[in-house]
Design a protein that fits this description.
Shape: globular
Distance between the termini: 28 Å
Helix content: over 70%
Strand content: under 5%
Order of helices and strands: HHHEEHHHHHHHHHHHHHHHH
Number of helices: 19
Number of strands: 2
C-alpha cells in the first residue's frame, strides 16, 4: 500500500511556497488563493493519515526506497497523526481568517506555506538530524513572519527570536552529534535499539546528548527561563501570525521533545538515569508557576496569553517527563487543546483589535455588549484554558494530574491545581472587565454610544466618525473564532475517542 501521503504533506506546502513569488511577477494578490488551496490539500492528506493510522496502526514511508540506516524515513502513528491533524486544521482556519485580516503581499504567504511544510516535517520525520533541518525551516519562516508588518518593534522581536532560537537549535544539534558518535546512526527506531545494546543508557555521551537535546527543545517550547523570546514575538507580530505560531510553533517544539523521549531515549533511560527525568519535570513544574504568575501581572492581552503559554507548555512537558500512560495521554490531549484554544484566542483578540484598535485588559471594558459573539467565544476559550469542564482544557489537565498521582509526584498535581487558580485569577479579571466594567472614563475603551467605532460583524456601529462605513472585520473572521470555541468545548466529551485512537501508541512506547 502506498504511503506517499506522508511525503506529500511536507512537499505540497514547500512547493506551493514558491508559487506566490513566481506568480507575483504578474499578479499582485494571488498568494492567499494559492495558500488556501494548499491548505485544503493538506487537510485532505491529514485525513488520509488519520484514517490509515486508525485502521492499520503505525506505518512508515522511506523516501526513495532507501534503507533506514542511511535513508530518510517518515513515520505516522497515533501521536504524529494528532499533530499533523492539528497543523492542517489550524493552517486552514488561520488562512480563512487571513482572507481579510492578514498582510496582502505574496511573500507573506510564501513564508506561511514554508512554515507549514517545516511543521509537517517535524511532525513526521523519523530521523533526528532531519528533525533539526525541519526545526530550522520552522525557525527561519517564523522569524520572517514575526517581522511581517515591518515595524521596528516587530523587527526587534524577530531578532530576539532569531538569536534565542538559533542558540536552542545549536544545542539540539550538539546533542544529536553526541548520540551519533555513540551509536553511529541517526534513525530514531535504530537509536532506540542501539543506545541500550551498544553503549547503555548511563553512558556519558548519551546523558550529555539528552541534556543538550532537552535544553535545545525547551527553548523551542518556551519553558521558563528559556522563554524570553515568546512575549515579544507574540505581542509584536501581526495577529494572524501570532495565532499561527502560538498554536503550532512551540507546540511542535514540545512534540519534538516528547518524540525523542519516547522514540529515541525511551522511558528506560529515565529508569537508568532518574536524575534526568526528575530534572526535566522539575524545570517544567517551575515553568508552570512562573508562566502563570507572569500572566497575572500583564495588562496587554497578547502578552498575558503569551505568558500563559509558558505555563501551559510547562504542564505538557511535565506530563511527558512523568512517563506514565495517563500523563502521556494527558500531555498529548493538552498539546492538541492548547494549540486549538490559543489559535482561537489570538484570532479573537485580532478581531477586537481590528474593529476597535484596543489591546489592554482595561480597554476591554463592557465589550461583551458591544461584540457579543466574539467576546462570548473568547470567554468560553478562556474558561477552557482554566480547565472548566466541559472543555478539552479540562480533559488534558485531568489526565496529567491523574498521571502525576500515578507516578508518585503529588507535587506536580498540586502545582497544576495552583496554576489553575492563578489562571482563573487573570481570566476572571478579564471576564469581569468585559461584562461588568463600565467603559466610561477609560481611555481607549469603547463607549456605549459606539462613537468612532468601525463596523464589527457581531455588534459594531459602522460609524468611523465621518459618516462612512468601514468593514475591517468580516463575518468569516468572527465565524472562525466561534467555530474553534465550539470545537474546544465539544472535544471535552471526546475522552473515549482519544483513548481508543492513542491506545496503540501508548502501548508501544510505555
Amino acid at each position: 500500500m502506498s504511503s506517499s501521503e506522508l511525503a506529500l504533506l511536507i512537499a505540497v506546502p514547500i512547493f506551493a511556497a514558491t508559487l506566490p513569488l513566481l506568480a507575483g511577477l504578474k499578479f499582485e494578490s494571488v498568494g492567499w488563493l494559492i495558500a488556501a488551496l494548499a491548505a485544503a490539500v493538506e487537510l485532505a492528506l491529514a485525513g488520509v493519515v488519520v484514517r490509515r493510522v486508525a485502521v492499520d496502526g503505525r506505518y512508515v514511508h522511506s523516501l526513495g526506497g532507501y534503507p533506514r540506516t542511511y535513508g530518510i524515513e517518515l513515520v505516522a502513528d497515533g501521536f504524529s497523526a494528532v499533530v499533523v491533524s492539528l497543523i492542517a486544521v489550524v493552517t486552514l482556519v488561520v488562512l480563512a481568517y487571513a482572507r481579510r485580516g492578514a498582510p496582502r503581499d505574496n511573500s507573506f504567504y510564501s513564508a506561511f506555506l514554508l512554515l507549514c511544510g517545516g511543521l509537517m516535517g517535524v511532525g513526521l520525520t523519523g530521523d533526528v538530524f532531519n528533525m533539526f533541518v525541519f526545526l530550522e525551516i520552522v525557525g527561519l519562516a517564523t522569524y520572517a513572519l514575526v517581522a511581517a508588518d515591518r515595524s521596528g518593534r516587530a523587527a526587534l522581536a524577530a531578532l530576539k527570536y532569531l538569536i534565542v532560537g538559533t542558540a536552542g537549535a545549536s544545542l539540539y544539534l550538539v546533542g544529536v552529534g553526541y548520540v551519533f558518535v555513540a551509536t553511529g546512526t541517526l534513525n530514531m527506531a535504530e537509536l532506540a535499539v542501539a543506545i541500550p545494546e551498544t553503549v547503555g543508557y548511563a553512558d556519558p555521551l548519551i546523558v550529555a546528548s539528552f541534556c543538550f537535546v532537552a535544553v535545545g527543545l525547551s527553548v523551542k517550547a518556551a519553558l521558563f527561563p528559556l522563554h524570553t523570546w515568546i512575549p515579544d514575538a507574540y505581542a509584536e507580530s501581526p495577529d494572524t501570525v501570532t495565532a499561527y505560531i502560538s498554536g503550532l510553533a512551540s507546540t511542535l517544539g514540545a512534540y519534538a521533545l516528547a518524540r525523542l523521549i519516547y522514540a529515541v531515549y525511551t522511558p528506560a533511560f529515565f529508569e537508568s538515569v532518574p536524575l534526568a527525568g526528575d530534572t526535566l519535570v522539575a524545570f517544567a513544574t517551575v515553568s508552570i508557576v512562573a508562566g502563570s504568575v507572569l500572566a497575572v501581572i500583564q495588562s496587554d492581552i497578547k502578552r498575558m496569553l503569551a505568558y500563559s503559554s509558558v505555563a501551559q507548555f510547562g504542564m505538557i512537558v511535565a506530563a511527558f517527563g512523568l512517563a506514565t500512560e495517563q500523563a502521556l495521554l494527558g500531555g498529548i490531549i493538552h498539546l492538541l487543546g492548547h494549540g486549538l484554544m490559543k489559535t482561537a484566542l489570538f484570532l479573537g483578540v485580532g478581531v477586537i483589535a481590528s474593529a476597535y484598535g484596543i489591546r489592554t485588559v482595561r480597554q476591554y471594558a463592557n465589550l461583551g455588549y458591544r461584540s457579543p459573539v466574539t467576546v462570548a467565544a473568547i470567554a468560553a476559550l478562556l474558561l477552557g484554558l482554566v480547565g472548566i469542564p466541559p472543555s478539552i482544557g479540562f480533559l488534558g489537565k485531568w489526565y496529567i494530574a491523574w498521571g502525576a498521582i500515578e507516578a508518585g509526584a503529588p507535587i506536580v498535581a498540586a502545582v497544576i491545581l495552583f496554576s489553575t487558580l492563578l489562571t482563573l485569577l487573570y481570566v476572571a479579571r478579564l471576564l469581569e472587565t468585559m461584562y461588568f466594567q463600565p467603559a466610561d472614563g477609560i481611555e481607549g475603551a469603547v463607549g456605549a454610544d459606539g462613537g468612532g467605532v468601525r463596523l464589527l460583524s457581531d455588534g459594531g456601529s459602522g460609524d468611523d466618525g465621518d459618516g462612512e462605513s468601514d468593514r475591517p472585520v468580516s463575518v468569516g473572521m468572527v465565524f472562525v473564532v466561534a467555530a474553534l470555541s465550539i470545537t474546544a468545548v465539544a472535544l471535552g466529551f471526546a475522552a473515549p475517542v482519544f483513548e481508543s485512537f492513542l491506545g496503540p501508541f501508548l502501548e508501544a512506547v510505555l
